[in-house]
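hey so u asked for the seq, here:
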Amino acid sequence: MVLAVGLSALGIGCGDAAEPGSDLEATEPLGYGKEVTVPISAAVTTLVYPGEEPRAALRPHYAVGTVQQVTLRTDHNIEQIINDQQPRDFSNPEITIPMTAEADTDGVDLVLGNVTTDDPVLAKALTDAGGSHAGFEMSELGAITALRLAPSPDTSNTARAALEQAFYQAVYRSVAFPDEPVGVGAMWTVRQEVTGGVLLDQVTTATLTERTGDRLTLQLDVSQTPKSAVWSLPNDAGTLQIEDYQMTGSGTITVDLGLPLPVAGSITVGGHQAYRDARSDSVLQQTINTQVSWAE
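ran it, C-alpha cells below
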C-alpha cells in the first residue's frame, strides 16, 4: 500500500486530497463546469454559561440586499513523514480572496475579486478566478448549512481546487449562536460532524468577551476527535489505523449582527496525526497547521 496519500484537503476531514506529489490540475474539483451546492453537517449549540446581565438573544438581522466588502485569507501547512524517511512538505499556498457579499433570503451570495497568492504557479492559475461566485446558506442562528460554489468558466482546475479548499476551511471555522439569551462572558459549545476520510467530531467553544451594539468579539477554542479508529483511504485504497490524532486551535473573531460575514479576526488549528498500515507496519505521520483570517 502506498502511504504517501494526503489527509483531507483541509487537514480537517472536509474532502479527500489527491496523493501527495500529484498534480491538482489532474483532479476534477466539485465546482467543475457548473454551480454545486454542498450540504454542511448540522451544528448543535449548547449553552454552558449565560454570561452577565443584560442578556439578549444573538440573531443575525441584516436586511436582504445588505452589501459587505470582506477579505478571506487561508493558509494550510502540512509536513509528512513515512517511517524514517525525510520529511516532505505538502503545504497549500496562502491565498487571499477579496469578496463582495450580498445578503439574500437564505444567507449570502459572494462575488470574488482578484484572488492573490505569493506562489507564482498558483497565482497564474488564479488569474481568471475573479468574478467567480460562491455563497453560504445560513440558519437563523448563524450556522452555515450549505456551501455554493460556481467558479467562472475560465477558472482552471488548480484554481477551482484552491478556492474550494479555502471556503471549506472558512465553513468549519465559523460559529453558530446559542438559542438562549446571553451576555458578556457567556460561553457555549458548537458540536459538528466533519465528514471525510476521517470522520471527526469537532467541538468549538465560544466565549463572548465583548459586545458594543451589534459588534461581538468571540474567543474560539477548537478541538477535533476521530469518531473511528480507522481512516478509510480515498478511492477504496484500503484503511489505516489511527494511532494518534491531536488537533486543537484557538482564535478571536469579530462579527457584526447586521452583516453576513465576520469583519475581523483569525483562527489557527493544528496538531499531529499518525497512521499505521497493519499489513506493512509502515507509519505515516503528519504535522498540520491551518489558519483562517477575516478582514474588512
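Confidence is low (pLDDT under 50) at residues 1-28. The chain is about 5% helix and 50% strand.
lmk if thats what u needed
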